[in-house]
Amino acid sequence: QVQVVESGGGLVQPGGFLRLSCTASGFSVNRHIMGWYRQAPGKERELVAQIRELRSGTVYADSVKGRCLISRDNDKNVVYLQLLTVKQEDTAVYYCNGFGTWGQGTQVIVSS
After folding, report:
1. Strand pairing category for 18-25 and 78-83
2. What is the bridge-based pairing of β-strands 34-39 and 18-25?
3. How far is residue 64's CA from residue 54's CA, in Å, rounded to a whole number?
């Protein structure tokens, strides 16, 4: 069964650190483009970061560039999203996508 499952969301204080995990099954994360997306209340879903299957090339949204890292662990078949110095505008449901499959998302709330 092909699926991705996100984890690691929750309440984070402004300026803090966030690490999300996307565990894939039914396909290999190193053979497909994997992406993290987010959808804030009242807004459309947007790409946050993407990692390519070849040479692990990455793409980041301007809003997170310089404070975000997408990476993967091929042995664990997991893709990570790390976000530093989080801001209130990072509040959103974060989704993982790969092999045409979406996860159910994990809620991130940035608040003091």
Report:
1. antiparallel
2. unpaired
3. 23
> Are the beta carbons of 93 and 107 closer than 8 angstroms?
yes
**Per residue in 49-95, pLDDT tens?**
999 987 779 999 999 999 999 999 999 999 999 999 999 999 999 99
Q: Give CA–CA dist 46/48, Å, rounded.
A: 6
C-alpha to C-alpha distance for 103 and 88, rounded to whole angstroms: 23
Burial of 95 (0-12, 13-18, 19+ CB in 10 A): buried
- Provide the pairing of β-strand 46-51 with 10-12: unpaired
Are 34 and 72 spatial neighbours (Cβ–Cβ below 8 Å)?
Answer: yes
Place of tokens 């699926």: 3
